[in-house]
Every structure is written in structure tokens, then in C-alpha cells.
Design goal:
InterPro entries: RVT_2. The chain is of the alpha+beta class. Helices cover about 30% and strands about 15% of the residues. It is built from seven helices and eleven strands. It has a three-stranded antiparallel β-sheet with strand order 9-10-11. Strands 1-2 form a two-stranded antiparallel ribbon.
Length: about 280
């Protein structure tokens, strides 16, 4: 186990550190674990928002969100797993710990939490919709196809089963910001894009220089830490390009040539693209 600081984007668009104990998943000797999850893509969120906005009598209160508090720590383990206590604990070197709940860093934690949450939704009459990652609750009245209304009561139902933070208006989901009003729902990645580079660098006319060619790159390879930073930055830009910034698509695709083995020059060129 390790104490890890992770950099996260908060609701104000600022990056902040969050600290937690995590499992060294890279040291897990188990093989063949089922780990695939069923996340909700942003385009499905936008589809549901459009459906809500088009409904009769729509009101912004129809759309609210809750953030599950320390999600993985609420899901029970499905397998017997022992871990070495952290060095800071007196048990280190003397005993192993048996995990009762999932922990961050454990390979199967995302899937186990997903199943845990789904079991609670099913308990209260929710079911999977045809859209991946979207669940809905069908009306018990045969003649009613869909019901519209404030979301708070449904969220409170979930909050009685799963520990969550306070109910909030929809503001941001996986890098996309939302502004919900009576007549429109505005979707934007401006906050996400700004967070990638807050150094105030003036945009370049040609962010990818003509010299950026892999076969001509003879610069030194990056170390492990720099490689991780390169891959993370490239991934963030690629995500941005795929949804709201197609002008970045060529640059991110070009720089992907170096993803497996980035170099000093490649990192410099990628930073030009970020700026």
C-alpha cells in the first residue's frame, strides 16, 4: 500500500491534489481477472439532456447530480485478497491485512463498485436503458411511458443506499461542463481545455513544426516519469480533440507516433500543441 497524491480538476476548473491510500496493483500476481466496466460516454449524457430539455414542462430541477464519496471503499470484495500494510503502520513486516472492501489501485475495484451500485439501483426499480451507461426507472402505470419531474427524490433514494456528497446541479462530467437553464443546456470543454495549460503561453500559428518527424528524431528518450507525463498529456489532448476541438485532431494523431517511446524532442513538440 502507498499514500498517493493525485491531481484532479475541481468544479471551479482548478487542479488540486487529492491524497488517498492505494493498492500497488502492479504488484498483484493474480491473472485472468474480470475487470471490464461499462462507463457512460459523454455523447449519451448529451442525448439524455436533449430528451429532458424537449420534454413537456422542463425545469432545471429535473437535472441534478451526486458524487459518490470514496466510491471503491464502499464496494465489498468478491475475492480473498491480503495486502502488506503501509510502512508507516506498526503492522508493517509483522502481519498481512485482509481486504473487506475494494481499494483504489486494485485491478477489479472499478468493476466491483459498478456491480455494487447496479445492485442498489435494481433494488429500487431501476433498469438498464438501450444507451450504454444510462439507467432509467420505468413508471408502474401501464399507460405512462415516461415521467418528468425534480431529480432530488430519486437521488435521495440512491443516497440512502450509497454514501454520497450533497445533491448539486449538473456542472461537469468527464471533462465536459454543462450550464442548464429553462430554455437551453450549454455544453462546453472550455474549462477542461484551459486547465491543460494555465501558463499564459500565446497560441502558435503552426503548433506542430515541420521538423516533427519520427524518422528524423534522434533526441534522447524520456525517463519513466517524463514518459508518463507525456502519455497523460497526449491522452488529455486526444480526448479534447475527439469531442469539441477537431482542430487538434491532426496534431494529437501525429504525436501519437511517440506514445510508446517518447523523446525529448517529442515532448517539446507536444508542449507546443498544448500551448
Amino acid at each position: 500500500m502507498l499514500w498517493v497524491d493525485t491531481l484532479k480538476l475541481n468544479d471551479e476548473g482548478e487542479r488540486e491534489f487529492k491524497s488517498r491510500w492505494v493498492i500497488r496493483g502492479d504488484k498483484d500476481p493474480r491473472k485472468g481477472l474480470e475487470v471490464a466496466t461499462d462507463p457512460c460516454p459523454p455523447e449519451n449524457i448529451r442525448f439524455m439532456l436533449l430528451a429532458a430539455l424537449s420534454s413537456t414542462g422542463f425545469d432545471p430541477s429535473f437535472i441534478s447530480t451526486i458524487d459518490v464519496d470514496n466510491a471503491f471503499l464502499q464496494a465489498p470484495m468478491s475475492d480473498t485478497v491480503y495486502v502488506i500494510p503501509p510502512k508507516e503502520h506498526p503492522d508493517h513486516g509483522k502481519a498481512f491485512w485482509l481486504l473487506q472492501k475494494c481499494m483504489y489501485g486494485l485491478t477489479e475495484s472499478p468493476l466491483l463498485f459498478q456491480r455494487y451500485l447496479e445492485s442498489k439501483l435494481i433494488k429500487h426499480g431501476w433498469g438498464k436503458s438501450p444507451l450504454r451507461g444510462i439507467w432509467w426507472k420505468l413508471s408502474k402505470e401501464a399507460e405512462v411511458v415516461a415521467l418528468n419531474g425534480p431529480a432530488a427524490s430519486h437521488l435521495q433514494e440512491i443516497m440512502r443506499e450509497v454514501e454520497c456528497k450533497e445533491i448539486q446541479p449538473l456542472q461537469r462530467y468527464v471533462g465536459v461542463s454543462y450550464d442548464v437553464s429553462q430554455d437551453e443546456i450549454w455544453c462546453s470543454q472550455e474549462m477542461y481545455a484551459s486547465s491543460l495549460n494555465d501558463r499564459g503561453v500565446r497560441p502558435l500559428v503552426n503548433p506542430i513544426p515541420d521538423a516533427a518527424r519520427k524518422q528524423a528524431d534522434t533526441s534522447l528518450p524520456l525517463n519513466k516519469k517524463e514518459t508518463k507525463a507525456f502519455q497523460q498529456s497526449l491522452g488529455e489532448l486526444s480526448y479534447l480533440a475527439s469531442f469539441t476541438r477537431p482542430d487538434l485532431a491532426y496534431g494529437t494523431s501525429h504525436m501519437a507516433q511517440w506514445n510508446a517511446a517518447p523523446t525529448v524532442n517529442a515532448f517539446a513538440w507536444l508542449q507546443r500543441l498544448v500551448s
